[in-house]
Amino acid sequence: MAERRFEIGRIPGFATVAVATFVMLYLPIATLVAFSFNEGNSIAVWEGLSLHWYREAWDNQAVKDATARSLIIAVCAAVISTTVATMAALGTTRRAKFRGETFIYVAINQPLMVPEIVTAVALMIFFGMIKVATGYQGLGYLILAHSAFCIPFAYLPIRARLEGMDLSLEAAASDLYATPWKTFRHVTLPLLGPGILAGAMLAFVISLDDVIITEFVKSGGQDTLPTYMLGQLRRTMTPEVNAISTALLALTVMLLTAFFLLTRKRD
Amino acid sequence: MASRAEERMQRQSARNGWLLSLPALGLLLIAALGPLLIIFVYSVLTPGQYGNVVWEFSWDGWVSILFTRDIFDGTLGLADAHLTIFWRSVSLSLMTTLATFALGFPTAWFIATRPPRQRGLWLFLITIPFWTNLLIRTFAINEVIRQEGVLNTFLLWTGVIERPLSIIYTDTAVLIGMAYVYLPLMVLPLFAAIDRFDMRLLEAGYDLYASRWQVLRRVILPIVKPGIVAGSILVFVPSLGAYVTPRVLGGGKNMMIGNFIELQFLAGRNWPLGAALSVTLLLIVTAALLIYVRAANRGSNPHG
To answer: Domain ABC transmembrane type-1, which positions (chain B) (predicted)?
Structure first.
């Protein structure tokens, strides 16, 4: 049966286009990674294998600072957005549909819908006012902005996990005289764990990758890795950018693999 | 009829739902939704001399989206430069949508018709670029198509061309780049639609002597249409608001709306115009998303 279904679905030329598409999708990334190991300072002419540019990036104070900043922001944003997203997911699933639920759902997913450049400009104006009024110029603005746009990315996997969860275990716990808090702490939360972890990882990746909002919200000298890379465009690009990209890429792929293992359905 | 106790429980449940959602809503209000309102206000203020705004009401921001005032006699004329940018944004976004569909449909079909065990792997291969930093992917395509990039080096080496192709910093470069970075957004919804497609319909079609082309046009495409609409919107919307890709591959000259908005703010030229442009972009995107929601609802209802 499977064999036949497979045959009937064949449309001439589709497989060729598909394979070509996969090649086109990965060839540029492969090139980028390959040239990060280039000995010379070109991103187009191969001059031999070396880790030269990784050392270069590692020794570059600006890169070190940007990395630290990126990680601080991403960790804070992931923790904050996952916490509020978990609460919101608990509030909007597994209860009778209530008035305003759709509004909450749309509001939470709003960062997915509004073009990033519009949010970026809006935040630049708004935080600009606060910066003038309070004199505070720190990383707080970036953390706040990142936490907000990471919420839907944390919310959706947690919600998906909650919707697939069996209510009878919690019912059993309350039948055994567990308080609501105890039920939550010892039954719901452990069951929800993988969903929360998955949401946090997505939020982390999204925060780490952000360019536009960061570019507009950051104060002077607050480059993150992506905005540092964008800034390099004005100079002659060296494989140092490739080395940073490759490192980020490796981190993303690792987190994504973990994400897929966590959310995989066990049939 | 619900008893009074049940009613009370329901009310309490709704209250808890709101309470639990409150921190998320508050955060979004401060750092996402609320500031958007400021944009609306700023679009009807007067530009300040050194950027920012003067708090005086004026429609000039909106008017100057399409018109410029002659500096000598003050008459209004169409702003050709602005129209060029809008036209470029819309046409490039449409072409990006078409290009991603042309490549994405066969790809999604290919994935959906793999044996179930392989399918996950192929899908994962689409998802990795989807979650990879957009800037990194734009840099990657930049290294391929730039003047002394991999493509030119390869073509020169094989002798296909004698002089390097000048793709970078043209509209074509922006188009290639956007098609490259947004392709996964087309493939994923198309796959979701094709995956639900009942392959027995193909057998029925072929049994009734339909050609492959007729089956594709009259059976497959109408049924997976919600997926096509979803993919098209998911590609069109970010293309229209694109900022990074045109900045890296268009080289400042080939601006799109996103870069044009930035120009109004960062070069400190005309904040109300920038705000009015942002609102316009927001409205277009909202309209596109409403079409998407309607199509998606139709997709989930098999009798619709």
So the answer is: 86-292
